[in-house]
Design goal:
Blueprint (H helix, E strand, L loop, with lengths): L3 H25 L9 H29 L6 H28 L9 H27 L1 E10 L2 H5 L16 E10 L2 H37 L7 H27 L8 H29 L5 H29 L9 H11 L1 H29 L15 H25 L8 H9 L6 H6 L2 H19 L15
Antiparallel strand pairs: 1-2
Helix pairs in contact: 1-2, 2-3, 2-11, 2-12, 3-4, 3-6, 3-12, 6-9, 6-11, 6-12, 6-15, 7-8, 10-11, 11-12
Amino acid sequence: MVNPLILIGMLVMMVLTVVGALYVLVYFQHEEDRNVAWAPKIVVLIGLSLASWVVLALPLDIANTKADGGLRIDVVWQILYTTIAVWCSAVIPFAIFYYEAEDPDSNRSQLVSALKWTFATVVAAVFVTFLLWGLLGQAEIPVAKYTLPSSALLSVDDLSYPLQCTGSQCGSSEALLTIGVTPSVYIMAMISFIGWFFFVVFGGIGIAALPLDLINAYANKPERISLQEFAQQKMLLNERAGKLLEIGRRFTAEGRHVRRTRANRRTYNRFKQAVYFLEKDWERCNVAYKQRGGNPLVYLASLVFGCLSAVLSTVWLLHVMIYVFPNPPAHPFLNNYFIALDRAFPLFGTMTYAIFAVYLLLCTIKGNIKFGLRVFIFQIHPMRVGATMMNSLLFNTELILLCAVAVVHFCAEAFDLYTRLTDINMLLGVQVENLRVLSAFFRNNVFLYVFTILSILSCMWLLTFPKEKKQENFDDDDD
């Protein structure tokens, strides 16, 4: 029998997250995309909703387990993960390929180009996943093997426990129980495994960069300038814009935007970084003159959220080092905190968990931008209020989805006292973490060690070099 309160709570959560995803889409979309590109917007809306659902499914799983709610949450998990896998490997790539294939100077069909690249992506993903499932789709679960002679059992007249057994024939040993996993569970493993790589790199950088950038935004807030200073800065910005326009025209005229070589991608990424900083400097100049330095409450809020972010980052890293790394754990730490909140009022525990989980996703987005501004391997896709192009929204939705499944895995492992006996513990903690080959990464906490080390190194680096080097006068022929 399904508990109606849990069912109603699940439906309300789904509706609220869709409304929240719609607000984010409208809040960040560019003015040029306001009444166009409806298909990519639907893709982004569903993608952001899926990310919210998979993160909030964990407290739902906990509530269903404790209240014996009757919901098949294991099926819900597999549906969510499989849908996210489809969204990340087929739907979002198609939308990105179609959106970026638009070229007024080319006769190529957008649809054909997008279908070609999407087909190649899907075939590769399906082939690799099912090949690995066929070869490595077995979980080797550590168990304790107890031996007991039959005479000891036959001599027992009742079922009282514990059974008394002495002698060399009685004992215990470690063993491995090998079970095959279903394709849906292996898809969960693959999408989680891939998501961990993105989360470790971008989340590790972002957990240090997010609080520091918020505090720096307050420390370096724009100061009020005069009309003469505004005109002088505007002239300098016009010169930078003219140089970038010339570089962009030459880059396009030579056809280098079509030839996807490493040098061309690097030059284009540097160009994007230069444009990004030009726009930021122009916005800062406008705020300094037209808005008299801007609203001080906005910068005060940045300082407050920066301090709160610093606390969250510190608590996360402390929890990992106190509870996850030691064996046995030194202290339950946040587990006790969530359990106590749930006992006081279940919604408090759910809300606090959501804050910690969503914070990691925000760190991931910040880490991606920070990484792209300093290393020109990837193209930057900043999220800017009212000025985020659709390809950037699609890219960040893909990143959020991949990292959301890693965040769920991270939280299920970090809060295993809080999440014990749940379906996600059975799926991830028992099956996925003990899969052949993948178990070496999870049992030895490889991802979490890299995440922690990268977080500490990023903090030290950003404190030493808080500002990115602007690519203002680069030559587009440079490597």
